[in-house]
Amino acid sequence: MIQFIASTVLLSLTAATFAADDLCQQPSPEEMAAALGITLPKRPWHVANIWWDFEKPVEHFTSLEMDVTVDRDVPATYNLYVSPCGIAKINGLQFYGGIQTNINGWASKENHERVFPGKGAIFSRWSADKKTPIGLEHAQTAGPDCLVESAGYEGEFASVRRPFAWTKGTYTWSITKGKTEQIDGKPATWFICRVKDHAKTGADATVEVGSLRFEGDDFSFWARHSAFVEVYSTAKIPRSNIPKVNVTFGWPRLNGERAAVKKASAYYPDPTKGATGSPDCALMTAEGENCVVAVGPMFKRDEATRRHDLPIKKAQ
Q1: pTM recorded for the entire structure
Q2: Cβ atoms of residues 95 and 126 within 8 Å
Q3: Distance CA 114, CA 121 (A)
Q4: Which of 35, 39, 114, 238 is the most buried (most CB within 10 A)?
Q5: Residues 191-206: what's their mean pLDDT?
Q6: 93 vs 302: CA distance, rounded Å
């Protein structure tokens, strides 16, 4: 059993200072770490990572859809990244994306001023070797409010981002295969990222985030998938607090069908592992075919539970 370590100092601080309208609020990471006698690693923190292992790769890949539910509004005073696509590969080309409380990026392909419009959705891909720069010719915006970026501070990548005022609710983050074109005599295909708000109907329910171009015309999706919940750092909020929140990830869908999942598992990065570490503040459980991440106060984790299975069950 994992035993949470409570501090009467933290509890009294909570009662005395927390605003009733912020259901995410808890003591700062620094306060919680001091109460536990631990050292905080540098942000960003992957507080929870989920992996689904499939029976086999999916050939002729055309779409990925992931449902995610956030159980409360997370204010933009936090830097929270909910990534239903933590790492994915098609033909070995890696991408990821999700929703954030504070997206940021370049105002346009021509204007590289960094702007911070608040909540939004993102879609990013790396170059084939993560070392060769990948330019903004690989990115296509979906509207004048979209942001872009091409940089190498976390491996060479290109990205599209778009403001999207998400709150408590259920959303579907997806990418869909679009048109194929010839670039220097070789095929390249655009994949379109969208986010659907299940609380809305009609045209207003879906926001197109933008598109990224991948080399090739026929794609194989690798035999696994991942998702994560992250507390990150920005120039606007360099030391974000950890919001108390529950995030539910649904069963991965590929080419419109639920993936043939062999197993699902949880991993929590070790807080002592430097740049890749995270303070222990999350627990993952299986609920039917869903994986639920509960983020809350810091605690000292039993090392035997740093990796564990998530016994999800496919609904009939």
Answers
A1: 0.93
A2: yes
A3: 16
A4: 35
A5: 96
A6: 36
**286, 238 in Cβ contact below 8 A?**
no
Q: Which residues contact 117 (CB under 8 A, 6 or more apart)?
A: 103, 104, 145, 147, 163
d(CA 22, CA 246): 14
Each as own residue / partner, the long-range contacts of residues 302-307 (CB below 8 Å, 24 or more positions apart, any chain) are: 302/1, 302/2, 302/3, 305/2, 306/267, 306/268, 306/270, 307/265, 307/266, 307/267, 307/268
What pLDDT shows up at residue 20? 54
Contact (Cβ atoms closer than 8 angstroms) between residue 73 and residue 19: no
Q: Give the amino acid at 58.
A: V
- In whole angstroms, give the CA distance from residue 279 to residue 272: 9
Mean pLDDT, range 172-177, rounded to an integer:
98
Residue 95: C-alpha distances to residues 90, 123, 190, 251 (Å): 8, 8, 13, 19
Residues in CB range of 109: below 8 A, 6 or more apart:
136, 139, 141, 148
Distance CA 47, CA 280 (A): 7
Confidence (pLDDT) at 274? 75
Q: Quick one: how far is CA 101 from the chain centroid?
A: 11
Question: Are residues 284 and 70 in contact, defined by beta-carbon separation less than 8 angstroms?
Answer: no
